[in-house]
């Protein structure tokens, strides 16, 4: 609550920055913001055509011909939200060094802009995916509503981790470069393009130790199998998200002054 109270007077600055960033992305293009819809729509169409119609890919235990396409989108879309926040958040302070030196405002406003912008992009993509599911009969179960707390959990985890690494990256610039490599391995250690059942039992601990993998699997459970998530499995990601948010805000609070000198 203290964080909200600190940033509330700067809400116009945060929302205005998000709006300008969104508009700048499609400025001088003929279709303008329509690209925000066309790009994710084309992704869903390509996945559907390639995996369900051309490759005839089947998902074990799922009879729906669109099963693998839905499985893939259900993993890639939340992973895209996580990776966008991480890649941008780690460098948010170093890339805005001049702004931090010239203007006085809470440092947390910069991560807040990234989170809001990434959530906007995710909402557009996930909204289009929801329409696709509705037209193909994939929204027949009320468990779909559980994607809301899952998304909030993913946002908190990504925010805490990116904020922690973002502060450390000011003092140790190798972190920003190294994490790009880590994220590539992290993607393939998360069951996005393959089902977790394909992992040998002796290596299953890799999934259970990966908070993002657990969250992605629960998205897939909801959107592919139309089942409620296993809430007890989310205990670990919840604890990890709370811990990382605490670490991130603590690091920022104690090193805000030093960061300006390093930048």
Number of DSSP helical runs: 12
Counting structural domains, the number is: 1
Order of helices and strands: HHHHHHHHHHHH
In terms of per-residue confidence, which ranges show pLDDT below 50 for 5 or more consecutive residues?
none
Cα-atom radius of gyration: 20 Å
Strand content: under 5%
Shape: globular
Percent range for helical residues?
over 70%
What structural category do the secondary elements indicate? mainly alpha
What's the total number of strands? 0
Average pLDDT, rounded to a whole number, is: 86
Q: What characterizes the major β-sheet?
A: none
Distance between the termini: 29 Å
Give a written overview of the molecule.
The chain is mainly alpha-helical and 263 residues long. It has one domain (36-262). Helices cover 71% and strands 0% of the residues. The chain has helices at residues 2-7, 11-25, 35-54, 67-90, 92-95, 97-102, 109-135, 147-171, 174-188, 205-208, 211-223, 235-262. The mean pLDDT is 86.
Give a short summary of the structure.
The chain is mainly alpha-helical. It has helices at residues 2-7, 11-25, 35-54, 67-90, 92-95, 97-102, 109-135, 147-171, 174-188, 205-208, 211-223, 235-262. Helix 8 (147-171) packs antiparallel against helix 11 (211-223) and helix 8 runs parallel beside helix 12 (235-262).
What attributes does this structure have?
263 residues, mainly alpha, globular
Question: What is the topological layout?
Answer:
Layout: H1 2-7, H2 11-25, H3 35-54, H4 67-90, H5 92-95, H6 97-102, H7 109-135, H8 147-171, H9 174-188, H10 205-208, H11 211-223, H12 235-262
Helix pairs in contact: 2-7, 3-4, 3-7, 4-7, 4-8, 4-9, 4-11, 8-11, 8-12
């Amino acid at each position: 609550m203290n964080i909200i109270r600190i940033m509330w007077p700067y809400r116009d600055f945060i929302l205005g920055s998000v709006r300008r960033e969104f508009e700048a992305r499609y400025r001088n293009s003929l279709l303008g913001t329509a690209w925000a819809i066309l790009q994710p729509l084309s992704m869903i169409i390509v996945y559907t055509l390639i995996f369900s119609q051309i490759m005839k890919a089947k998902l074990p235990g799922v009879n729906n011909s669109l099963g693998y396409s839905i499985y893939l989108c259900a993993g890639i879309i939340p992973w895209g939200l996580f990776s966008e926040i991480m890649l941008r958040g780690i460098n948010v302070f170093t890339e805005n060094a001049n702004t931090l030196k010239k203007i006085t405002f809470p440092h947390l406003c910069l991560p807040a802009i990234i989170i809001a912008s990434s959530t906007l992009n995710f909402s557009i993509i996930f909204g289009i995916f929801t329409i696709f599911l509705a037209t193909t009969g994939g929204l027949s179960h009320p468990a779909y509503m559980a994607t809301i707390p899952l998304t909030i959990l993913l946002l908190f985890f990504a925010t805490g981790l990116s904020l922690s690494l973002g502060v450390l990256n000011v003092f140790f610039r190798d972190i920003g470069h190294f994490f790009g490599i880590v994220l590539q391995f992290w993607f393939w250690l998360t069951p996005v393009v393959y089902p977790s059942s394909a992992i040998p039992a002796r290596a299953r601990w890799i999934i259970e130790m990966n908070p993002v993998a657990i969250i992605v699997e629960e998205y897939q459970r909801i959107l592919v199998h139309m089942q409620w998530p296993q809430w007890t499995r989310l205990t670990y990601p919840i604890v990890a998200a709370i811990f990382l948010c605490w670490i991130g805000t603590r690091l920022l609070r104690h090193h805000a002054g030093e960061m300006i000198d390093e930048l």
